[in-house]
Amino acid sequence: MQQIVSPTAKYVASRIGQAILAVLGVYVVVFVIVTVLPGDPVSSHLRNPEFNYSEDEIEQLLSYYHLDRSLWEQLGVALARLSHGDFGLSLSANRPVTAVLWDGIPSTLQLAGTAFVLATILAFGIAIAAFYLPPRFGGGLLRAFPSLFLSMPNFFIGLIVIDVFSFQLGFFRINDYQSLNALIYPALTLAIPASAPIAQVFITALDGARAEQYATVAISKGITRFRLLSRHLLPNAALPTLTIAAIIVGDLVGGSIITEAIFGRTGVGSIIELAATEQDVPVLQAAVTLAAVLFLAINLVVDLVYPLLDPRLRQVAATR
Amino acid sequence: MTHSLDRRQFLGLGALLTASGILISCSPRGGQPNSSAGDGSSTPRSGGEIFYLNAHLNPSYAQQQINSWHTLQVWAQFVEYLFYFDAAGKLQPHLATGYTNNDDFTECTITLRPGVTFSNGEKLDAESVALNLNLQGLGDEGRGLLRVANIPASYGHADAVGEDEVVVRFTEPCPSFIPILAGTSTTGILAPATLKLSLEEQGDLKNTYATGPFVVDSWVPNKEIVLARRDDYDWPRPDAPHQGPAYLEKITVQQLQEDSLRVGALDSGQVQVIHYTQPSEEQRLADSGFTVLDSFIPGSVWGLHIRLTAKHLDDVRVRQALTHAIDRQEIVDTLYSPAWKVAKSPLNINTPGAVDLSSKFAYDPDLANRLLDEAGWTDRDDDGYRTKNGEQLGVIEYPSVFITTSEADLQLIAQQWKRVGVKLELKNVDFTNYNTVTSDPSVSLYEIHWAAPHPSFLWRWWHSSQQNQFKAPSEELDRILESIVAARTDADAFAASARAQQYVIDNAYFIPVHEFPQNFAAAGSLKGISADGYGRIRLYDTWLDA
Question: What is the value of pTM for the model shown?
Fold first, then answer.
């Protein structure tokens, strides 16, 4: 019986296979790099002379955590655990790594997700307003906003947001990590610089699409600006914008470290920062693996969405 | 891609930024209604909830891992100790009623307070205390639980005698056991149900049952701990102003790392207590009606151990010059508030046994210059640093990764030493490698500000068989330190401690700089707030004014 497998399914399967290999590679490389670095959270804590532990006692605890084994022995154990979805125990928290990361994942997803939505709205708003408004009525000023936003570090924005909206106006409590109201402000802090490259690319793409001959022909035929934008310019400008937006998602997760610290939120960013400071290898490995999976998944989704936006790409995808 | 601004756009952006700056700078900074803590004009009232911001909360609360000043402040609200140091620095019983030692200090009998229970209903009795002490003194290798490092290795075993007496035996004399229990953060008394758990399970605060006036209602690792009042609590410390349950109903402790934001939250009334205010904010907060608490713990000042094995520092004249070249008052006036004090001794002056030796290391740049000239450092290089045989007079120090003010202190010291021609090179290292790197004998200076509940801690820091912080053994110093450990009375221990302090100052082994407090700030509406003699904030007697 002849089985027919669609080209798309084959493409997706091969991309997933590549992704798995990539993730494994990242896992091994991170493990080796972090493990060969001098120090670990157990001995670095115990070697504080204020605590006065002897070398024998330190060795005893290193043995309990299997940190006295060779690099390759530790890697073998870690890979065997990984095959069961087990990332081991955090050396500083003494809890399963998955539980430690799960403490922060919902908060980071909320923050990054909300920030992405706000950044997209802000970017699209700026770009479309800049498209519509003539330069002397603010269009030119709007085109400068992406540069301004990009030059403002998010800790600076965060401190201003907190000072104005929390301490002075009382719109939210600084350490409220649960309410939606409190989520908007750190999300805004992340969204402002994140919107800049999206807006910049979108403005450029719209300008480029507007300069094409088909747009000139459409205008000469009497098309309204709205219809020109929605039917012709937007679909063409969407592709490069989508690419940059996918990259921004990764930046949002990484950039959340500073925002989380400023707003007192415990997310993946702050967990990773603590793990890096204390050389908590299992947590670092799991975090980097998670980040790799996230990036690869987003890129795969973007690759699959492209042909939906541009019919020309459907033919190319079908022949892969 | 680039976007160039024309004049109109530039002016528009500039106006926007200026407006933002004006909006922020016109911020009304409110304080809370002014009133000092416990001023007697307010009647304690039961009820209320407060928010307390801490710089750092732990991901795990196994008692061995709560060894930081930040975490201790929270831990001490629901975990209690057999003994403690009161605000005057005097040793007092709490869960115990007293203790006796045998003649050679190889046995210590502790008598327990009756009527105390853990929050899970278990009784505090001799068996439960013996279980605690044995885990603290011996650890449990199989569960990855280390012993409490401050408890000497001569700890033998604790045994229950009847309902309310515990006998602790040592293989060698240990006269310092009770002060160590009082002055160590990881010697709190926990319920047997907690102690029998694995390391991982003990790290979960929901499993921590203790005797304190508050219990853990809920917690989020690295984020928040919610404490609820324990309504059947009735065994406060002897110096507590009231009996019975705590006044406050609920305390929510949250982590916020940024120092200025903690102050901002207090200023705006969002929280009622913060741990650690930047020294530059202390006076402003006090003037605005907030309560600022500075608690100086028994232990060392913030000071510098000199490594005699490092370059140029084997010469006592060079070491003495370094200590006389530090203007301690300038450091305190520049970097801190009036509540901070210059050092008078290697120990905070309220530490039992501390001796005022300030005249021996007073700021005297003329003397420092003379000493360096006598030591042969008479030439100067183009930067103004002294040289001898072509070599520059320089020392190395790694600012502490544990103290936020360390680098500022050292930068000012570097400026002061430059005036007498000595170069202080500051290097940085990460948290993980700090202890390893700074233990190298070639590193010139090592800073300290450690707790020392008993003079025997000087033996731990300075004896050549122990931490040996000066790196070059001195038989005379070793003898003095051994006499501290051998002392059988407090008077003898303090006398030996005084000799040790004099030795390290006379020989310029140690440079005291300034005293180092635990520091808190609280809203004026929060009454009765205080700290004990070990720098632990006390919220049991605290109430919210109407």
Answer: 0.85
